[in-house]
Amino acid sequence: MRRAAIVLRQLQLQGGHAHPHAHPHASHTCGGALRGLATGLKDVEPKTLAKARRLALAVGTAAGAFGSLVGVGGGVLIVPAIVNACPSIPQRVISGTSLAAVVATGSTAGAVYLGSGLVDATSALLIAGGAVLTAPLGARYTARLNCQALRRLLGWWLIGVAPLVPAKALLLARDGDGAGGGDAGAAAAGTAAGSTGRALAAAPAGAAAAGTAGGDAGSGPARSTELLLRPLRPADAAIAATGCFAGFASGLLGIGGGTIVTPMLAVATSLPHAAVLGTSLAAMIPPSLVGLLQHARMGNVDVRMGAALAAGTAMGSYVGSAAALAAPPGVLEAVFAVGMAFLGRKTLQAANKAAAAAAKAAAAAAAK
């Protein structure tokens, strides 16, 4: 049971090192989780902790804006920023606390996208359910597979997929213009956020690029803000598989599911790009909340730092998601491409750094 609790914490944007033992007084209740908060900080100097708490609001704001525009939780910025500024704070505590920011990003940006009907609730539930189920399985294979090679593969995947999303948008827009359906082509490219969103809330996502968008363009906000479940369709098998794969990769590599889910939804589905972001961000709320509770039970959450991070990411993600909805055609896809390339580069750097550290440790052990 202890192993299951530890591996679930892998559902985060930036992996850390698991705390070897759960807090002895933690229980399986929320009260037990609260009693275990911040026990991982007992050896950290107060001035270092105060510095991290001061940084949290600004770092969280930047991470929230980035995450809401790219479709990730923001931990990929939060963890290295605070680790570099306060290296004496255990990374497991920073990683665990950063999950509060991921929950805030998903909730705030998801609500903004939902306000324009740009969340496919059924897809989000399928992705979240699959991720929660398969993350422990991925963690069990950590010692059996070459994780550094897989990290490099993920890094190259992110770099490779980066230009595909703008290219897809250009092709869809060109096809729509060629067919005389300018509005439909724009919706398929993810640029007509309002009308596309209302169609998405009322019909399967694949129909959003059709004339439904134009017919619902004048719908009132009450309809667009409803979180509606749609009937399952054959294509949902691929969406559920995406969630399962993202959860497995999160458990195996200690990465955030958004780096898997967002590019796969963007490339493999007919969802408008803004709906891809909204759906991916909404899907990361349940697994991140589970991971946050697990970290709290192990003493890896600082409440004050987490509150500052959550406040910052809430502000940043609100501004970022609002800007995404107002972005001119093609801008959102271009931002996504730059963001994925950035994440891919960071993933490759982390893999190379970990491989070098492992080789150094092996050499030191052999010299003894």
From TrEMBL:
Keywords on record? Membrane, Transmembrane, Transmembrane helix
Q: What is the source species?
A: Raphidocelis subcapitata
Which membrane topology describes this protein? Multi-pass membrane protein
Compartments in which it is found: Membrane
Q: Record keywords: ATP-binding included?
A: no
> What parts of the sequence cross the membrane?
55-81, 93-115, 121-141, 153-173, 237-262, 274-296, 316-343
UniProt superkingdom: Eukaryota
Q: What is this protein called?
A: 4-toluene sulfonate uptake permease
Annotated Gene Ontology cellular component terms: membrane
Q: Which PANTHER family match?
A: MEMBRANE TRANSPORTER PROTEIN MJ0441-RELATED, MEMBRANE TRANSPORTER PROTEIN YJNA-RELATED
